[in-house]
Amino acid sequence: MATTIICTLLSATYPKFNQYALILLGTPFLSKIILMYISLKKKDIAFKTLLQRFLFFYVTGFTVWTLDKVLCDLWLQLQIPYFHAIWHLLCSFGGVAGLALSIYVHALSRGQARTFRLKNYPEFAGFFGLPYLEHNDRES
Question: Where are the alpha helices (DSSP H) in the chain?
């Protein structure tokens, strides 16, 4: 709680701090998830899919953000101001995947993962759809 308050105050006072704080705060979560994946003896397909989706959008978004920051003048000179919007979209998709992954990890830690089924909205979008977990009333 103290970390959240301190980071919020620093981000409001020094806006440049925000860009680094978000990455730093996300790193422990990512490390925990990767270690959990490695420790799973039986590979869980839903966990693997959510992790891959989260990593894809997280890494791609971070890469686009870096290119946006480093080459900002070039993009403006070429009249391509869209990189900033693209990384916002990628981070949004990564955030949804991260949230679904967090819920699934919580269910795994309680032995309740079988009560959830991974789905996408819209279904035809597959990997690029928004992931969500459907709760089954009875375990299968």
Answer: 2-13, 15-39, 45-70, 72-77, 83-109
